[in-house]
Design a protein that fits this description.
Elements: E1 3-6, H1 12-22, H2 31-47, E2 51-58, E3 61-75, E4 78-90, H3 99-113, E5 118-121, H4 126-130, E6 135-136, E7 140-145, E8 159-161, H5 167-179, H6 189-192, H7 194-197, E9 202-208, E10 211-222, E11 231-240, H8 243-254, E12 260-267, E13 286-287, E14 291-292, E15 295-298, E16 302-305, H9 308-314, E17 325-332, E18 342-348, E19 351-354, E20 362-367, H10 368-376, H11 381-386, E21 390-392, H12 398-404
Parallel strand pairs: 4-5, 11-12, 17-20
Antiparallel strand pairs: 1-2, 2-3, 3-4, 5-16, 6-16, 7-12, 7-15, 8-9, 9-10, 10-11, 13-14, 17-18, 18-19, 20-21
Helix pairs in contact: 1-2
Length: about 425
């Protein structure tokens, strides 16, 4: 009889073998590197209670793997528990045996039992996970702009390069930023160590009055294989706690114009192109009639509500924009039947209370994937309605639902897992 359980220390080499085949681009390249990877992953599990590896076993043979994460996420001004999953993989000889489906079912049930009513992942295929009830989060934009396009704000005297001993300050800076930013997960020390373990990675900090108020993680990448003098500056992470910190980083990037070809960076900010004097990338493409290509866009992190009733209880102290109404949500959830139900929520002065057995002023029907994106603020209700992804019993309440879930900030995620 197959079972899913935590991977024991002696089987991490088998786990890495499955991971190598599931993710060939990231695979180890020798037996020695495979053993090192196995030791590293085992060490993470043994020394971090928030990360665990689980396996699908059939007749004591490991056939599937996954990694669980336990996060604390900022939902506007509230902290809620979130489950994360990564490194989902199935042995090549046992593909199409519904092992991945069973792994995901176990993951959802595990987190539901632990009282985590929201989970998240990065999809290898968004359509695969949307069928399992995961909704899309905020899009990410990739810019490739000239350094001179960043504004020159004059001052950069508070900038200094940070070393490994500064890691606690960087972690504290990030977690302060996370506490104020919708969607961000808190990070632990081991997640930030990689920035100081790679010799080619630079960490630039903004310090004022003895406190780190921002940092910029970057590295140099060749822009032309035939010319070693042509390089891009690749930004991996950019955090700032003040306008002054942001300004000085902009000045720093602007002043690289004599050496750097392009600044390449990814950001979940749809308005960033307004910052640049020239937002165009280096393709010279035009989108008809005359729209200059500024970057590429991708969908990534996805969210899923596991229990619509309990998630509103988690958010009882969150103000949904002062709303006064009662809404019955009819959630379609075919993958996790426990959440396939009707939930009525009374909003008074914006604060939600689940009302058992009542009917709302209005009934809203939608799939759990779209409900999850709506609750996170990744998509406005009006868009779901016009796209035919949400139905409403009385159209005069469309603006009410639009305002109820309105957020000035879409969810941001800077954690890879």
């Amino acid at each position: 009889m197959p079972e899913i359980k935590r991977v024991p220390p002696e089987q991490f080499t088998d786990l890495v073998m499955i991971a190598d085949n599931a993710y060939p681009a990231l695979a180890t390249d020798s037996e020695e590197s495979r053993e090192k990877m196995a030791e590293r992953l085992k060490d993470v599990q043994e020394n971090n209670p928030d990360v665990n590896y689980y396996g699908y076993y059939d007749q004591n043979q490991l056939k599937g793997i996954m990694r669980f994460h336990h996060f604390s996420m900022t939902y506007h001004s509230e902290k809620i528990k979130v489950g994360g999953i990564g490194l989902v993989g199935v042995d090549l000889l046992h593909k199409k045996e519904k092992i991945a489906k069973q792994l995901l079912e176990y993951f959802l049930e595990f987190n539901h039992q632990k009282g985590r009513n929201l989970v998240s992942l990065y999809p290898f295929r968004p359509d695969f996970y949307k069928k399992m009830g995961f909704g899309m989060g905020t899009s990410k934009y990739r810019y490739r702009v000239k350094p001179s396009s960043f504004p020159y704000r004059g001052e950069k005297s508070h900038l200094t390069f940070l070393q490994k001993g500064d890691l606690p300050k960087v972690l504290a800076c990030y977690n302060e930023y996370a506490s104020k930013t919708h969607g961000l997960f808190e990070k632990r020390k081991y997640e930030m160590e990689r920035y100081f373990s790679d010799y080619k990675t630079k960490v630039l900090g903004y310090e004022k009055d003895g406190t780190l108020k921002g940092y910029l993680v970057f590295s140099f990448k060749r822009a032309d294989e035939q010319n070693f003098l042509v390089n891009n500056l690749q930004i991996d992470e950019w955090v700032h706690l003040s306008r002054e910190a942001f300004d000085e980083f902009c000045t720093f990037l602007h002043t690289q114009k004599d050496q750097i070809n392009r600044i390449v960076f990814d950001i979940q900010d749809e308005f960033m192109h307004h910052l640049f004097s020239d937002p165009r990338n280096d393709t010279n493409h035009l989108i008809p009639s005359v729209y200059h290509e500024t970057g590429s866009v991708g969908t990534g992190v996805m969210y899923r509500v596991l229990d619509a009733e309990r998630i509103f209880n988690d958010l009882q102290n969150h103000n949904f924009n002062g709303a006064d109404c009662t809404v019955t949500f009819q959630i379609t959830d075919t993958f996790f039947p426990k959440n396939h139900k009707e939930v009525t929520v009374y909003f008074h002065n914006g604060y939600p209370t689940v009302v058992t057995g009542a009917k709302g002023d209005v009934v809203v029907k939608l799939d759990v994937s779209d409900f999850s994106s709506l609750l996170m603020g990744a998509v406005p209700f009006e868009k779901l309605y016009w796209y035919g992804l949400a139905e409403i019993s009385d159209e005069k309440y469309i603006n009410t639902l639009q305002n109820l879930f309105y957020t000035p900030q879409k969810p941001i995620c800077l954690t890879t897992f």
